Queue: 2 jobs
Job 1
Amino acid sequence: GPMHAGFDFMGWDHTAEEIQAKLAAGEDVTVLPVWERQLVYVSITVNGGYISSASGMSGDKYLANSKTTVTANTPAQNQKFAYWTDSTGKVLSYDSVYSFYPAADTTLTAVFVAQDADIEYQALVNVNTFTVADPYGNVSISWYVPEDAMNVEFIGAGLVSVQDKNYTEEAFVHGTTDTNVYDRTVDTENAIGSYVWTGPYTAGTKHFVKAWVQYKTADDQVVTLYSDMFTVDRTEE
């Protein structure tokens, strides 16, 4: 049957008998393919909290790349919620209610600290996951700019992406003039968010990706912060 990325071909919308009957009656016949979206499900483990909303489930798994929200448990006496971390200990959010788009099996942990502890707020920006969506692929990013705590103003967020053969360190920045670099700005005014981008990550290629976030300080300095470099390597396929 025909191919359509991210979908399974289920057949045609007419049976052979229906087609024959219409032709015999002198009618025109338009036969259309029937598609069904390929649904990918991932497991989500939450320590110190629970999943408060999710888009779809299959058994105890959750629909990939769709909005999922976790809520931290009520802190114990003399404690307060500090932030969410991923399985590597990386801070993802300072909000007790956190929404994200899981592209792979995910473990999140709510971290609690003493009521009088100082939480050192900083702007966060991460490339979280890559998933194949043949022939291309999806990269998910997230960011968090604690505007009030840092006394700054969010400007924007996005990502830069380039194939390895076209990579140069100096051109791999937001605002680049290098036409080989994809420089994507997310259409949002939200200082907290996540975004999934479908890019040219075809089998046999290797790409580098960095997420970025920009904010303005009280004295009008524009700060651009980058995530760690993320590699999408499909050269073995």
Job 2
Amino acid sequence: MQKNNSMNKSLSTLFLLLLFASGGLAQSFSKMMKPKPGVVSYTFRKQFATDMPGTLDYIKSLGIENIEFSNLFNQSAYDIRTMMDRRGIRCTSFGVSYDDIMKKRATVIENAKILGAKYVRVAWIPHNAPWDINTAKQTAVIFNEIGKDLRQNGLTFAYHNHGYEFQPFEGGTLFDVLMKEANPEYVSFEIDILWAFHPGQDPAKLIRKYPTRFKLMHVKDLRNGVVGDLTGSTPTENDVTLGTGQINLKKVLKAAKKSSIENFYIEDENDNSWNQVPLSIAFLKGK
């Protein structure tokens, strides 16, 4: 029985890939969102670490031509760019650590330019929990400085929410404070919809509230039954195939289409992402 289930799963995945190749999925994507979906390198982190060319081939076979790299996987930015160019794949966003953007900024800028990225993204701020008003305001000052520096180098800085920023504050949240204090000329945002939903926010409502501030988006889904919190942490197995979890993705995608979001990326942290991503693409095809 287990062998038959595995065979059926493989056949289902193959059917989805053939369907995409026929053009049906690509047409649906164009109706659903302004750009076609990309993927975050973290989704295939284990595969990239051992076989980057093969992983890029697999991504291209899914019809995906846009990657947000958040790790160079012990490769040079030049070698990654060469491999992407050969396959007609582009990198639109380069994710780096807070430490690197603060201490190795010249290298970050150089690598982002080599990769061809427009955005440099940070997804975590070192802090003592819970996040507080002083940290939020100090972070905005630092982000303004980073963003101004990157802008002068032809790049755009973006911050990716991770859940802990939504501590309640004066009828709103500390994320609202960060939005207010961060200069839109220098600081853009990438909304991770799971890390907005998990701490109790409505990601579609958040996009509508800040229609011009979000430029990038991570699309993912949270397993049914998982109760969120403000820690910015949940086991990776709680990332599930799009459309099978708690998030109202139709609402989110509708809001995103009317916003300033330029690129959206499928991110699946589950160890089974290799098999889940084609099913997530099929879900998007049906929306």
